[in-house]
Amino acid sequence: MVRLSSFAALEPTSFSELLALLGVALEAPAEGGVRRACSIDGRVEVELMPPSDNDVAVLTTEHGTLRAPDFQVSITVIGAAAASHDQEAIVA
Fold it and tell me: 6 φ, ψ to 5°?
């Protein structure tokens, strides 16, 4: 997991994708303080943990600035592993 503030320099497309993932995760119920959710296409899983302090992440792009709690974030591409496994099964 990394802090949200570590995403400080993102291109607009990446920033939009990050915002979409954060939105999905924030809508998920918290279980033990962790929010888990998958992207709409099911290829990416995101986990959010609240910050252990009161730090605020500030992410600035050419389209504006996001100020949010400095969540701990984990983003995992799960579709790639599944696709690779399916390809191996076809070859075998």
Answer: -70, -10
